[in-house]
Amino acid sequence: MLIFNDVRERGPISRSQLAKELGLSPTTVTVIVDYFMEHGFLMETGKGDSSGGRKPILVKLAPDAGHVIAVDLNQSRAAILNLEAEILRVRHLPDAGKEGWVRSLIQVINSLILESGADFRLLGIGIAVPGIVSLDKGEVITATNFNINHLSLKEELQKHFHVPILLENDANAAAYGEYLYGYGKQVANFVYLHVGKAVGAGLFLAGNLFTGGAGGAGELGHITVVEDGPKCRCGNQGCLELMINESALADKWQEWVTDGAIYPGLSGLVQLSNSGHGGAQRVMNYVGSLLGRGLVTLIHLINPSFILLGGELALSNPYLLQRIKKYVSEQSIPIFSRHVEIKEGMTRSNAGIIGAGSLALHYFFEHLHLEKYIRA
């Protein structure tokens, strides 16, 4: 697995370079590389530079040697990803109500598999859940939008699919996708912040996803940003998520936009604020100040290098981004605000899908499932 993962992470690379950098004999490297090529997981791809003599043949990961299925429950989407986390096919989960969505999910996964043909190699399934999950049990502890409490989702799915199944909170999954395939590469400390119908954060600390003792770390949406504010469903008052959810923003729109214009929804609000609409910008100023308040607390606690933004309210929204940056610059300790870069995540609207797929891909690559699969 050492040679395979080195090729996966650094390829295209020559056999001789692998031998030199890993301290192995050229014969050993050649035998192992040829073994993985025989089973379709590595491939040759052109020739490299040479300081003299024959140019070396380069090898790389064969991206379509296997696939994972990624599910983003927040966006009601499922997709097939190849070994390089490229999205090949997407299906939307139909609205089956709060009672029938698990059955609907199983049907969509089966459809994706059937559409992919007889040679399709399913290596794992990753699921991004908008709620708190138990990683060990594969259980959704709570997901309010789906009316779920203590659902053994992994157990339900393994009745139908005999591959590793990984569950994770959606913001954590998105952070994982950024760590493996986005701006989080080679970054030890960063935050992924999802801002949409819900607010949540995925925290990468010292190069590892930090989930906390009960798996619920990063619930930034449930810190108090308005003293004596309205009561949240979590039992707290003035929570960030409650103060900037769609209902709250619709109320602010009606209060501040007096020309009778109908509230345009999150995407419309983003478009209007960036086109100069005064009322929309006032609403977005309100959002930016409350998000900034939450982020200043987070910055002072963990001192991240990056804060990567995602979600319907934050993507393609330079007006909000500038408002957040201004608040953070003015309200945080200068050495911290100078150190942190705030920007949109690289995975953008596919953050949940790529994040969920990353869970399954990482598990496959790191837990010897490649070797087990080949021996089978």
TrEMBL record:
| Organism this protein belongs to | Paenibacillus cremeus
What is the protein name stated in its UniProt record? ROK family transcriptional regulator
Regarding protein family, the annotation reads: Belongs to the ROK (NagC/XylR) family.
Superkingdom is: Bacteria
Annotated membrane-spanning segments are none
The protein's UniProt keywords, in alphabetical order, are: Carbohydrate metabolism, Xylose metabolism
**What GO terms describe the biological role, i.e. biological process, of this protein?**
D-xylose metabolic process
Known function: Transcriptional repressor of xylose-utilizing enzymes.
Q: Which Pfam family is an annotated match for this chain, by its short name? A: ROK
